[in-house]
Amino acid sequence: MDFRKLPKLVLHYHFEGAIPWTLINEYLRAEKLAAETSDHPPWHFGDETRFSGFDAFRDIFQNYIHTTINSMERAEAAARATLEALARENVRYAEINWAPTFFWQRGLDYRDAYRIFEDLKSEFLETRGLHVRWFIGFARHRDACLALEHLETLLALGPVDGVDIQGDESQGRAGKFTQVYDVARDAGCFLKAHAGECDGPESVLEAVERLGVRRIGHGTRSAESEDAMDSLARLEVLVEVCPTSNFRIGVIESVRDHPLRMFRERGIKLHVNADDPMIFHNTVTSEHELLGRVFGYAAEDFAEMNLHALDQAILDDASKKKLAAEISSAPDGGTL
Ligand SMILES: [Zn+2]
Predict the structure, then answer these.
(1) pLDDT at residue 31, rounded to an integer
(2) 14 CA distance to ligand 1 centroid (A)?
(3) What domain range is 303 assigned to?
């Protein structure tokens, strides 16, 4: 089956971690920071590549992305290249996180980033049939007051599609962001949270209970608690699973160990995602292939996942209906 041709939705994708390596490499050479000529990142040596932990993963951002995406022109080129890559994979709807602090901490104006990203929405819908929704990603380890300031500044410019908290959960509890989420909820933003990745199932329960989210990024360690899994199923929380990401960072020992099959058997709704594809050297398509190879997932399983995602998508009813028909009528991935 040609997974690339399947019409797909993307729910868990980070702008900063998705910029194509070819572009980053071009900027590295322009800055005389590296003489890499390889078509893959230097830290990637094959399917078994793993980081020593979350900090090593975070160092990549510092060493390769912060040093190269150092102007709004480059940020715009990076966003455009990222959306192009998604369109080429026949992604029809994408929720992408970006962090105002990525710009703010280097003296760049994150309000300009908001304007650039918003403009790209209409361009890509028109030219590539790709619906883009931008989510503001707040780092868990940072001060919640700063998150609130950034959110309110952006809301003064226009609507914000959604908010998320991301990063190492052990360095910042979900509960400290309640005020941020209250403001976001009142402004009509979609709410989601990364949880159950670096920290245990209590981080998932806390995000669901304290922030009122019905979407969890990763959620992997919910498998350690009956309560957490029951809550996810009962409250119909959609879990964005990211198996390659979890393997490379060390949340699971092998992709086969990912609890996604158990989650599904317990009635938890799932959707598969690539997370930071440049860092993890994966794609939306390769993540589908992986689930096909390891768990025997076929076109109908992915259609089910994409329809769950579509249920929660920020789209009008007519667009949802059109996309649902496309997903349902391409069962073998080859009829498009
Ligand atoms: Zn993520």
Answers:
(1) 82
(2) 6
(3) 3-170+238-262+272-328
Note the pLDDT of residue 36. Answer: 59
pLDDT in the model for residue 94: 98
223 CA distance to ligand 1 centroid (A)?
Answer: 18
State the total domains in the chain: 1
Distance 181 CA to ligand 1 centre (A): 18
Q: Which two tokens stand for residue 108?
A: 């760049």
Q: What is the pLDDT of residue 332?
A: 60
Identify the pLDDT of residue 75: 98
Distance 196 CA to ligand 1 centre (A): 11
Residue 110 included in any domain:
yes
End-to-end CA distance of the chain: 13
Cα of 165 from ligand 1 centre, angstroms: 9
335 inside domain: no
Number of neighbouring beta carbons within 10 Å of residue 336: 11
Q: Which residue stretches of the chain have pLDDT < 50?
A: 333-336
The CATH number of the domain holding residue 278 is 3.20.20.140
Q: How far is the CA of 2 from the centre of ligand 1 (A)?
A: 26
CA distance 177 to 193: 10
What's the CA-to-centroid distance between 169 and ligand 1, angstroms?
11
- At 215 the three-state DSSP class reads strand
Does residue 284 lie within any of the structural domains? yes
Ligand 1: centre distance to CA 140 (Å) = 12
Q: How far apart are CA 44 and CA 42, in angstroms?
A: 5
pLDDT one-digit tens code per residue, 252-284: 999 999 999 999 999 999 999 999 999 999 999
